[in-house]
Amino acid sequence: MSDIPSELRFAETHEWAELLEDGVVRVGVSDHAQEQLGDLVFVELPEKGEEITRGEACAVVESVKAASDIYAPLTGEVVSVNEALNDSPETVNNDPYGDGWLFTVKPSDEGELDQLMDADAYAEHIEE
Amino acid sequence: MSQKTPLYDEHMEAGARMVEFAGWQLPIRYGSLVEEHHAVRRHAGMFDVSHMTVVDIEGAGARDALRRLLANDVDKIREPGQAIYGCMLDERGGIIDDLITYRLEDDFYRMVVNAATRAGDLAWMERQLADFDAKVTERDDLAMIAVQGPEAIDHVVELLGAPDVASLKPFRSLVQGDCFVARTGYTGEDGCEIILPNGIAPELWRKLVERGVVPCGLGARDSLRLEAGLNLYGQDMDRDTTPLESNLAWTVAFQPSDRDFVGREALEQQKSEGVTRQLVGLVLGTGGIPRQGVRVVTDAGDGVVTSGGFSPTLERPVAMARIPQAAGDEVIVELRGRELPAQVVKLPFVRNGKPREGLLPS
């Protein structure tokens, strides 16, 4: 059974978003997604300062077998990226909601967060 | 509707992630692909390869038939139970399939061909062998388990009570009870492939699990064969490529010169005109993993990645690519709009569980 923290919001494409105290949103992939992807061996993150658009591909995660796009759950400017993943992409598998975060984004419209699914809705989504 | 191997229930019970492959339901991985990969390189792993097609060729004309059908020569086989690897070609020299052929008795040969090419292979064989006294029989009553890794043979010897398996040379086989055991594989490690009746396959599989042999899926099978520099039909070679362009010139027996195998004329012409493409290994640094179809830019023109992935043993991206024969050692792989430098290397990437010497900067 996959882990779904109740304080997070989720996109249909399996990214999670967490509103931090400074109004910045941290983004990663769900436990379900990392399990589906398998052992990650390479992560390509957006550039700091890059404008990303909700629903559009903004990063790539690669397993031994395949490359998968990560879609921006929100529109905004990338504030920071998790550089540690360059050396240890497997952290996304081991700790998808903690040290395996991908990047943070300053949303142009915080209201977009409410359009993401809550934990219950996401649990239903991955049951389907 | 896809087919299930006799080991389907074992895979489901083990919680395998299943995929459809060549019309069969097969495990892609059970847990971690990388752990399955390392189990084979370091200890012992096993694969359900029951989807592969076993074809028996019997009759007084079997030998002549196979000397016509295959680019390699079954007359290289010196003793019963021995096998050769090679290609079945069309008249243009294009590869219809790659396969292993065992001679079991003077008039009795066994071939193991790819599942993905099964229908075409069987039709081709029927047509080519129509004029020979050789009967083609598909053996769908047989399952196949590949046990691979440095400890694989020990497990099989003890489990089957078959000490002779330990002294089998590569590409030799023996029959032990209901099991046909061959010292072959698709991982670059020591090990064997066991062909056995469907009904007893699950029991052997379970006993191997009890002994600690790690079930491995198609994912690890692919990453292991890539490291070992072994071609995958449909990716690294197909009807539009010849063995001479596929790192398989060693499997074509031009001698004796009077053996008229299908495709011979085309290959001889290609040889005399000069082979213009080659299949090579590429080693990359970081920056992403090249996949099939990605463009390779060389100083002698463009090439293409035929298989690519992350090598768990080398801990870096590797690929097989078809590039111009005249290309230099430094090439560029174009990936997602970026240009990644890559080094052209001889295959395999990994030998005896270790990166091949000189392949990695120390």
Please characterize this protein's 3D structure.
- Chain A has about 130 residues and is an alpha+beta fold.
- Chain A has four helices and nine strands.
- Chain A has one domain (about 10-125): OB fold (Dihydrolipoamide Acetyltransferase, E2P) (Beta Barrel).
- Chain A has helices at about 30-35, 85, 90-95, 120-125, and strands spanning about 10, 15-20, 25-30, 40-45, 50, 55-65, 65-70, 75-80, 105.
- In chain A, the strands form two sheets. A six-stranded antiparallel β-sheet of chain A has the order 1-2-3-9-8-5. Chain A has a three-stranded antiparallel β-sheet with strand order 4-6-7.
- In chain A, strand 2 and strand 3 (about 25-30) form a beta hairpin.
- The longest helix of chain A is centred in the last third of the chain and has 9 residues, at about 120-125.
- Chain A is globular, with a radius of gyration of 13 Å.
- The model of chain B has no long low-confidence stretch (mean pLDDT about 95).
- Chain B has helices spanning about 10-15, 35-40, 60-70, 120-130, 150-160, 200-210, 220-225, 265-275; strands at about 5, 15-20, 25-30, 45-50, 55-60, 85-90, 95-105, 110-115, 135-140, 140-150, 175, 180, 190-195, 215, 275-285, 295-300, 300-310, 315-325, 330-335, 340-345, 350, 355.
- Chain B has eight helices and 22 strands.
- Chain B is an alpha+beta fold.
- Helix content of chain B is about 20%, strand content about 35%.
- The interface between A and B is medium-sized, with 13 and 18 residues.
